[in-house]
Fold these 4 entries.
Entry 1:
Amino acid sequence: MTNQWRLDTLDQTLVLLSLNNRLPCLIYWGRRLPDNENLNSLSTAVAKDWGDNLLDKVPELSVLPEQSANFPGQLGCKMRGLDGMILSSNFVFLKDEAKDNSLSLVFLDKAIEQTYTLTIISFEESNMYSLSAKIDSKKPIFMDWFSAPVILAPQNSNEMIDYGGQWGGEFRSQITPWVTGTHLRESRSGTTSHANFPGLLIPTIESSENSGSCYGFHYGWSGGHRMIAEQLPDGRRQVQFGNTENSDLISGNSFETAKLYISHSSNGISGVGKSFRSHVANSIIKAPKDNVRPVHYNCWEAIYFDHNIDQLKEIASLASEIGAERFVLDDGWFKGRDSANSSLGDWDVDKNKYPSGLQPLISHIHSLKMSFGLWFEPEMVSPNSNLYRQHPEWIMGHKDQTLGRDQLVLNIAIKDVEDYLFKKISALLTEYPIEYIKWDHNRVLPYPDASQTKSLYVLLKRIRLAYPKVEIESCSSGGGRIDYGILENTQRVWLSDSNDAIERLRIQHEAILWLPTSITGSHVGPKVCHTSGRELPLAFRAWVAAQRHMGFEMDPRALSPSDKALLKAVTNWWKENRQWMKDANILRLPCVDKSITAEIQINSSENHFVVFAGQNALSEFSSPVPLVLSGLDSMAMYNVSLYNKNHINSLGKSDGGLLQKTLKLSGQFLMNHGLQLPKAFPASMMVIEGDKAA
Ligand code: GLA
């Protein structure tokens, strides 16, 4: 029997075809097809011709490529019986359940007594699909690899874009040409990792940043993960995403992939970004919709482990004067934690530093009308801690393993460990009015282990259920655990430990495709950056933070009166603009001058915009290249002005242009000729506002 299934979003269509009851193939994914498209004709139209003598038909590239189908590339699943023998499936159609926005297909292999279930959900508004797969086996098996439903990738594309990176330098995009063979990306550190953000973009030949077809993928899993992008000798391409560690150690009867999110856009790479951001904001993050994002103050880079309550009160008062609305007490508040070498696991307030507990500090913070947040690193334990001395058996891995930041990982899949952590965190959330948790995770796991990730989700859910008003930030030495799995239970990410505004500008520019601004933490760091040693102007640092969810992390006691005035002014600007910026359409603005990193944020009524144009280095040109804008109404006129003239240092000699006046220009001109920027020193941010003229 032949079966076809079609699932639409606002702009996309996805069609699956199953011939002779076999596993289905994704025969179409792209721009929405007409409602009357004939799926039978489509099924005939995609049949492949071939010219070699190797097999008498082209093997199907199904959602789970199987050996039994003679598939010549990477298989969708690799499993073994408990005797170690390879199990080769041959699934046949059993049943389907199709609703308006979801599809569930079940296939059965009688011989090996297994079912394969594929679930696809379409999200109309955010223009997104999520796909996941499950194998249930009557007998316990080992699962060495299990891909989420395999996606047939477009053949009219020359390259793919994914991400490398490192601590303090996340989201380093890299371009790989499609060639015959596999492109493998894998995080084996047991976390999402700084170096392997699980995202993939496939722009087609004709596409660019803001136009043409582009396909986007994200795997929503916070543990080890693997991506395989393969071009077969016949030219077809497949993309697989799955858990690295599905269960290479433990046998089981049921294996499920995380959700693979996919979205196609006809508006280039930025269009894919728009869908991913909107999906995160509207369907993944659990926070009130009208949630006003408070300006953060985080004390980490100001005091590190040197906690003194009077000094902290002074810091809080100064932070509040500049505009902070939430104070986050970072690492160092709990018993014995005077350095990074001890006490993780002993989650009791240090009575030497806080003789009357945290309340006196919190009361002071509340008197300043700020909310209070607290740092935890629950999944870790220091060898030098009471917890480790009592429970050395609670760790993951060998006791003589290489430490990371002098710490070990707790095996939170042990129920007693989960209960212990819940109890300790609960006790603090009950005793004190804590509205925010910065949930850190600072070392890699000794080995990838899916049960650790699953148990983390359970613990986070338990805390969210018991304390629904407490927001959680996902931090992992900065951006080591950023993915849509963790975002189901957290509301902000600490994008990077780098507060170096030049590096941050780059990281933000890349991450904007995947993360809404309102959940992307960005802080104004100390004068001399602690991760790069660079000294950058305060105005630049402040405006880079104002692009995202703004905060401060420097010691405000070190600020001069003019620094404070400047920071306060930028913060006030951010407060005035944060509500519309939360829902803004954001388009990156490519520029042939690589010393400019720019984006435009356009409000939802499309009558106001702000361009952030960051001068990240010295330009190779003596006169700035016009910056071509995007997303405007070509026929409308706009009043365009440089908001922060006083913050631009320059050798510029012109007495015209943006530095001097407001310009009235059409969208057409701005999107074709572009905007002539002033000649600025490196580490300058030009903030250009535009209003549609009546
Ligand atoms: C990690 C985080 C920092 C800070 C420290 C505290 O490095 O990324 O922001 O919280 O831990 O130890």
Note: Residues 561-582 form the longest helix (22 residues).
Entry 2:
Amino acid sequence: MNLQGIGMTSQRTRLRLINRLKESGIRTQDVLEAMANTPRHIFLDEALAHRAYEDTALPIGYNQTLSQPYIVAKMTELTLENDPQRILEIGTGSGYQTSILAQLAKEVYSVERIKPLQEKARQRFVAMGLRNIRLRHADGGMGWPEAAPFHAIIVTAAPEDVPRELLSQLADGGRLVIPVGGQSQQLMVMTRTGNEFSKRIVEAVRFVPLVEGTVL
Ligand code: SAH
């Protein structure tokens, strides 16, 4: 793995990606800066690294994908809207979304069901010097009860319905950012006030499904 990576070419293409995100309506300066500072190519296998700064989802093995940068930026904005200190992420995957969140919040807890993906992500966090991320190999539909409540929960795989366990692990005022649905999915924000939950639909999205159980 090479943090310096692809050098000047990478620097230019990275800036082009940031401009594209701005044009797509991403306005939060902190989010744009974190994305500009994050080497997306280290989250991919070498054979795909040259496509790292395209605004597309890319395969990471095990039938999973690293999300499209626009969607990462959008979900990060939504997750950080109430300035959460403690965030839970379901679906670590490559760790790219995790690493962006970790640059912008105090503590990030992230759950992944596929062990080899989790291990690769862990190495990337070490390489980036990120020390505020805790990882767990488990079925994220159960959340992370011992570390709850969370000010924000972000889910990067789509369940058919919002998992109740995740709602119950939100702090008062906390928010759940989650794609929901099967063939057609909507990105939603559920906000907790006491024991009431309000729902906002953001836009249509396409995520891999949230799957039960774990893979070693
Ligand atoms: N945020 C990731 C996206 C990875 S794709 C990235 O940017 O790379 C979604 C991830 O969710 C996959 O790694 C998949 O294994 C994981 N996943 C799916 N169902 C899960 C579950 N029930 N618990 C934990 N992780 C799950």
Note: The chain is about 30% helix and 30% strand.
Entry 3:
Amino acid sequence: MEIIDNINTNWARRIIVTGGAGFIGSHLVRRLVQRYPNYLIINLDALTYCGNPANVADVADLPNYRFHRADITDYEAVAAIIKQYNVDGIIHLAAESHVDRSISDPFIFAKTNVLGTLTLLQAAKDWWSASPDGFSGKRFHHVSTDEVFGALPLDRPELMFSETTPYAPHSPYSASKASSDHFVRAFVDTYGFPAVITNCSNNYGPYQFPEKLIPLFINNIVERRPLPVYGQGLNVRDWLYVGDHVAAIDLVFHQAANGASYNIGGFNQWSNIDLVRALIAEVDRQINRPDGADLDLITFVKDRAGHDMRYAIDSSRISRELGWKPSLDFEEGLRITVQWYLSHKEWMDEITSGAYREYYDKMYKNR
Ligand code: NAD
Ligand code: DAU
């Protein structure tokens, strides 16, 4: 094993966050660099269409932050970064994450989510198993989704996804995430690899790419554009504020037993149509339009193919075993979220105009 640069021995931990320029990853990076100044946090992100350096601009100059533009499917690149910092932790969020895109182009989902995860697992295993203390003190945290469990019926409200619910993915996105979870478990079972998995419900909050329901619709309401509700809007999602999700990841990363998995969710189910009405009410309130002024924007459109009817996470295990619970109720979370998008119009405009891509292509061209 080669000698690692001394500089790395000064950090209590050296952790790669993959996908740290995306929505949830940027919140996690921000939390970790601020909360653990003695940790080195390495943001590894390919900056695909939804990765945006602006999402972490406020922490980019902190001494314990590094950024590497790299593709998780590139073994050599990933292995070199793991080695350069003698990484002892990986929190893996990089993914293709949008269900609609997976329906029109499933291959990139298999490549990034399945092969990318396998590449990371293999690179970490190769480096860690060759280190003097092997897997001891190492951790690979795989961030996954509740969609791996399939869909629940509307007429059985008592049913929820628990950690033992059998996998039954429907969309190419959830099939790819389920497959990546299986590879993580296979590494645990086969090699004793030090991994944990979390499966979370729908997140919302600042910095979410505006292809997802909440930021897309906030922007459309402001701009008085139609709100395309799929089908009849009866599908139910279980919404959690992104800050509560990354707090749970922090806890699981540090405290969970190897091989464990935890479901994360807010016990907060909303039908899409009720959520859209609540969103309209909140946006209108904040921009001083009369109550209900934008309800006419609701436009029912062709349903998403294979649209999962209901997701609902039972997160009692993480509460019971690790003491986690959501800190924000939905009303407050929605208020903060709407306020953030309204006061960060330039962030939204840079994305919708495509300007953010020129910025990072210039900035990171040679990395
Ligand atoms: P996102 O789409 O906002 O960000 C994904 C990030 O991954 C981007 O920064 C992108 O540049 C990066 N990336 C994509 N392909 C890459 C590659 N080949 N190599 C390196 N980086 C690459 O995603 P998100 O919504 O923040 O989701 C993050 C993770 O959390 C995903 O694994 C997703 O499955 C999971 N998750 C998301 C939600 C949710 O509601 N958004 C809920 C549960 C779980
Ligand atoms: O459950 C966790 C998952 O939540 C994550 O794993 C995914 O990465 C994340 O994208 C999210 O998936 P959804 O498909 O539930 O999220 P989305 O924001 O795309 O859609 C939320 C609901 O709103 C869903 O039922 C589809 C519907 N919808 C969505 C869009 C974009 C519409 O009715 N109209 C729209 O334009």
Note: The CA atoms of residues 29 and 35 lie 10 Å apart.
Entry 4:
Amino acid sequence: MNGLFRRVLIANRGEIALRIIRACRELSVETVAVYSEADRDSLHVRFADRAFCVGPAPSTRSYLDIPNIMSAALLAGADAIHPGYGYLSERAEFADICETHGLTFIGPTADQISLLGDKSVAKETMLKAGVPVVPGSDGPVARQDDAVALARDMGYPVIVKASAGGGGKGMRVARNAEELARGYTLARTEAQAAFGSDEVYIEKFIERPRHIEVQILADNHGHVVHFGERECSIQRRHQKIIEEAPSPAVSERLRSQMGQAAVKGAAAVNYRNAGTMEFLLDEDGKFYFMEMNTRIQVEHPVTEMVYGVDLVKEQIRIAAEMELGYEQSQIQPISHAIECRLNAEDPDKKFIPSPGRIDFLHIPGGHGVRWDSHVYSGYVISPYYDPMFGKLICWGMDREEAILRMQSALREVDVRGIRTNVGLHQWILADSRFAGGDISTKYLEEALVERSAAHG
Ligand code: MV4
């Protein structure tokens, strides 16, 4: 026995399912894959020790179908479930059902997921714990008049956010009372439709912020450590496309401050598992807590490469009640890493998805180059799921070397049969604003306007 688990079921698909299988294998833990009818030929099915079909292509009937996944887990004799990201990873109900059936959910407790999933409650909790949060309402705002009165005291612009939201859904910016009256009602209606709750809260709107997130690990024995930050400002419609660690905007001093804030916040809720504290960094260098993600994230590899840590293996060890074997002072970044998310989509046609058969695939290698993906030459990308078909991650001695290595690697990428965003990545990597680290969450939107003008 490895002292961990005998058999882990992976309740996910795509590159993250494969990533989890690799971590399990290194830990001598057996793996059980689940897949939809559309994913029969995916690498996670091939490389797991066993695989169960859990339903047809639509996620609601397969990767989100709790009874089907629980049946597979019990039938396979799994003793733990890794949820990956997305799908069931932040469903308190699923964590609860796992525990009820005697299976370990590789993540935080159901109560922690619920608490941190309510963004308004999470913010209040962090405020009490001494973590800087964006100034705003004291919890939810139940009436439009209250919203307007509050904004008058606070000053415009403000932003209305759904308590059950996150990731950008159900948000409305208001620059005056009239916009707020409209935005407040719209945000509530949208939140009700999207999340089944119309509870909203209000914050001061921060102009041109950076999105910086801090990676933490917390075990069941009271140890919490952080692994610095990731710069995640390059996004479109709340979908990140390039991430890097460390952020060119974060000094060693700021890293230590944000790290300590993240650790304090996680400790305040007795957190366990890997987790991410999302912050906004304003133009004056002040940072504010926004939300906490209770899952492994897509962009975790940049942290892994810079800190030499395997975050997925750490998640599994933590879930098996093992103690973190190191202290904060032993955790030091070694230079720089950048991740490009490769998507099957056409950036020149409003990012329309481009599913289909990959007729030929060549992926770069070499020193400091990592490729996390479930695809191969001949693989068919399904229209049912996210268009991301792989992540190219490059490490360098410094940011400049990481950028040069990524540019070199992107030149070697050869994907035929589908449209991809490789050209857009090359364009961003060659942009002087990116090279200068001069970016905010507004960057991509503005850069795309210029790029399309240049493309004619
Ligand atoms: C904000 C903000 C400015 N001020 N909150 C977007 C996702 C969700 N997690 C919160 N978001 C924002 N909250 C205040 N008070 C700007 C955003 C925002 C954003 C944040 C991170 C990355 C990209 C973004 C794009 C647009 C808006």
Note: The mean pLDDT is 96.
